[in-house]
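[Solved] Which block belongs to which protein?

Original post:
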Amino acid sequence: MALPARARAVPAILAVVALVFGVWMGLLRVGFALGAPPAPGTHGAMLVLGFLGTVIGMERAVATGRGWAWIAPFGAAAAVIAMLAGRPTVAAALLLVAGAALVAVFAAAYRDQPEPHIVLMGIGASGWVLAALTWALGGSVPSLVPWLSAFLVLTIAGERLELARTIGTSATARRWLWGAAAIVVAGSVLAWTSPEAGARLAGAGNLGVAAWLLTHDLARRTIHLSGVTRYMAAGLLAGYVWLGVAGALWMVSGLVPGTVAYDAALHAVFLGFVMSMIMAHAPVVVPALAGVAFPWSPVLWVPLGLLHASVLVRVAGGLAANPEVRRWGAALNAVALALFAVTVIAIVATGRKRRRAAAGHREA
């Protein structure tokens, strides 16, 4: 059962709200005086599960065409409201339900199409559930972050594994990816009792996933094409590099809060990798979710380039223990995300104007 467009707009709007508040909280954390947003301690949950969880849930609900699949994005969107209302316990409970619904979506998809990539994405969705459970039980941030990362890294790896079938992957290559994914999960489990050791192990897994993507992903071929195809491939490959950087930083630093590598290690994966995936997939995801045309425009290169430049500044500032450079890197991160949002809106609006003009010309 297809959900009406107006109903789809509800989680989409709340996803944008989660992004705005999450970025606001992030700017406060690096020292900008920008007032007092509600629930400032929910920065990570707001962005990863509130914003990205809602978007990924919407994408999968549209792809499956099952009405009940919308429990995932609506549950994540409701959790955003709970977080902003200062009800973290309610938010965690809603996120548990939403994550379980996403796992059920992949279970149903596997019954219809028993393929390895669906299993991998289902394991990623389980990372969402375990992250929400860790938060609900009062787990520390270092014990929570590996699960948040596992949710995104394994979900994206599963999507790319599906596309890799078009060019063929050897049994050895598939074992490589599954081995890296197993290390990500093992490190996340270990982080419950030993956060530093768990982060190091999960980092090794992330590095392995990044190396697999850089070696076997379809983007290695499509980068040689032109237009939107090259743009998407560039965004993907640049994101994979940041995942590799993040994996190395996790292995070295152990994600110990307060160390010089902590901020760099976190944002290399959640900004450099994940947000690059969002920007790269926008030409495909926006039409699917919003039901609108999204004509290709080279202007999209600007926010993508700014994102990666700003992450480089932020990571360099963090590793150099230079809070001022790190702060301005964070500010440029926010500018890149805002510019991307404005660019997407402008492209959609321009496409609508062109279609109306063409329709008017035909009628005349």
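(Second protein starts here: sequence line, then its structure tokens.)
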Amino acid sequence: MPSVYEATHEYAVAQDQVDTLFPFRERFLFPQHNGENVVYFCGNSLGLQPKSVEYLMNKELRDWAKYGVEGHFQAGYPWFSYHSIFNERLSKIVGAKKDEVVAMNALTVNLHLLMMSFYRPSGKRYKILMEAGAFPSDQYAMESQVRMHGYDPEDAIIEITPQAGKHTIEDIDIINGIKVAGDSLAVVMIGGVNYYSGQFFDLEQITKAAHSVGAYCGFDLAHAVGNVPLQLHEWNVDFACWCTYKYLNSGPGAVGGAYVHERHGNDPTLPRLAGWWGNEEKTRFQMKKGFIPQKGAGSWQMSNAPVFNMVAHNASLDLFDKAGLDNLREKSIHLTGYMEFLLRQITHLSFEIITPSIPEKRGCQLSMLFDNNGRKVFDTLTEQGVVADWREPNVIRIAPVPMYNSYEDCYRLYNILMSIEL
């Protein structure tokens, strides 16, 4: 792809014409504004619906009507093992082995289940380290976890903040914070990509630092999965969880996902909350006392698969397989770079891009921090058919998603911003 950008409509259209991923745009349904597709830059909050969802949902409805309870074994995708159809595809997306991942529950539910296993404070090792300004659910989860063990969050939770005058956190400050905490640290739990700034942390080095002081290391990958390259197994990450309704396009409230490194997943002595779907399959229906965890992340399952909730996930992961992760990342770097270039041409609106400019330190989200009038700009964009994302106190988040966004989308946003008068 060319390295020189141009702020022209002709350039944007030309890029779309040579983009091998451009046809995937036609596999999604766009909301409408005045009879045309909106300019949709909100995939960091909710991805668009794949057109194949309707067909797959109707297929499950037909199987339910046809088979009733026998659909657990006779449906096209048998419901008994429905969750397992995701393992291989998810393992590629997060860089794990098939048995190290599982589709289940929702993000914060999975985070609590994993923390029940990995946050086991003892003696002076009771602290949790996280980034300041983490997504509220992560903050609430960590607060409640330490309180359940009788600790005060003000003491037990260490928050790493940006340096003075900066909006993002240096990886070295997280690593140094881990070293300072030393043997008081039980768990490091960081959001892989910060929801507010769009910063992608160095998960490999953070994991190494955590392990060097004897702590577990886990990540909330809500804004990372399907967005940035991940190699959780290779990086030796202990655990992680994510949602699938953002970059994985699996619908509102869609099934979440979890990763547990095989050294933990295959350790039956590691405590976990037990449910019948996490029991080994060969004895699951014997209805006996005594939980016997199956191997891998699947042993953290508690209930049978919510099949209808998983249908869109199935449709979306098929598209990821067809598009290819390397291709998506290559386009993402160039498309986001183009969007950044266009935004920097806008001088009459007072804002700064607080997302790192280095491609390796971000995914496709760009966060625009306004000095003032940010809400007016956002409302004007909405009136003009742009779907972006507002975050208090004064940030507009936009996400040029490589699966369905185009270069022309980026130019259209730029053109609208250029026309705004305040």
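Accepted answer:
You had them paired correctly. Confirming on the second one: The CA atoms of residues 74 and 350 lie 60 Å apart.
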